[in-house]
Write a structure and sequence with these properties.
The chain has helices at 2-13, 15-34, 37-50, 55-65, 68-71, 74-83, 89-98, 105-112, 115-125, 131-140, 151-159, 172-189, 193-205. It is built from 13 helices and no strands.
């Protein structure tokens, strides 16, 4: 862990990287404090689209759909996903439209007062959301207490011997075990898991998206 902690601190001390991360953090906080219910639902749809896909493609489709996340018929939502080349257009459109029946997300998530309890509710109640996607949604709505264990972060953990290897499958139990390891790194570098993720993602990809 020492080597990854050292490299993370180097990234955190880079003014250009820190500036980009701070800008993202401010955007997440603004969405939490001022975002409308439609904004929160759009972010949920973004996270549903990134599963087995990429954040960049999710951003493109989210911008293209705009308020259509809430209003378009399912076939039209599916059509937009297909136009952008999403490999799982039909099931993702189905998940997004089913999610419209959820209670108001902002009020529901804030009612828990605990990011990990909120994540459990999301995983249990939103079809298509696993721990990773639920964590992603929470982070993007200004809740920084959970880790987003995507393939880039997991590979970085394996490269620095935080885990023995990249697992072929990730059960909920395994996810929580790896998250606990990242929690220790988070404490060491004094950055909450959701913000630490941005630095780790940058270290692996050279980008800071969302």
């Amino acid at each position: 862990m020492a080597s990854l902690a050292r490299k993370t601190k180097e990234a955190m001390s880079d003014p250009s990287v820190r500036k980009k991360v701070k800008a993202r953090e401010a955007a997440f906080k603004a969405l939490r404090e001022k975002g409308s219910d439609a904004d929160w639902f759009s972010e949920l749809c973004f996270c549903l689209m990134t599963a087995n896909s990429t954040a960049r493609l999710g951003i493109e489709i989210q911008e293209s759909l705009a308020e259509g996340c809430l209003t378009l018929p399912q076939k039209k939502v599916e059509g937009v996903l297909r136009e952008h080349g999403h490999r799982f257009a039909r099931p993702r459109a189905d998940y997004m439209c089913r999610a419209r029946s959820l209670p108001k997300l902002r009020a529901k998530i804030e009612s828990f007062g605990d990011d990990r309890l909120a994540r459990e509710w999301l995983v249990e109640n939103v079809l298509g959301l696993g721990y990773k996607e639920a964590s992603h949604f929470l982070r993007n709505t200004g809740h920084f207490g959970v880790a987003i264990l995507d393939r880039h972060i997991i590979r970085l953990m394996a490269e620095h011997s935080l885990i023995p290897e990249v697992p072929k499958t990730i059960t909920p139990k395994r996810y929580l075990e790896m998250e606990a390891t990242l929690d220790a790194l988070s404490e060491q570098v004094k950055s909450p898991p959701g913000i630490l993720d941005l630095y780790l993602w940058y270290m692996k990809t050279g980008e800071i998206l969302k």
